[in-house]
Design a protein that fits this description.
By secondary structure, this protein is mostly helical. 46% of the residues lie in helices and 5% in strands. The longest helix is centred in the C-terminal third of the chain and has 17 residues.
Length: 149
Amino acid sequence: MQLTLYTDYSLRVLLYLGLLPERTATITEIAEAYGISRNHLVKVVHNLSIHDFIQTTRGRGGGICLARAPEEINIGDVVRHTEVNFDLVECFNRSQNTCPIAVACILKGALYEAQRAFMAVLDKSTLADVLENADWLRKTLRVEGELAS
């Protein structure tokens, strides 16, 4: 299974903001830190704000920040709110399935189980868990600011 770039960028935005508990960041700042398109991040940030993962403030002095503590942001929830679908194979989508063996296919059951296991692992992780190497992330991304103690 491969996550979309949209989900990847969503997770990156949250990681970056998790490094900045004392200040806001801008979309441009995050885009430059990761070397990715600002235009892509505008859509990502909008979606993250709709789902209350982040808060946005417009205008001069505005920016974006986490809407809740990193310990309260579940990685599995983020993935569920950013992935378009979880169709690992064609037969997972009943309306578009053309596979002639889908009705009796045993492989489909194994793939469903693998998908559930994948999400179960993500459900055990919070943003705080993936920020354990915050000092390294901050240095690598050239982020100014420190984690609150």
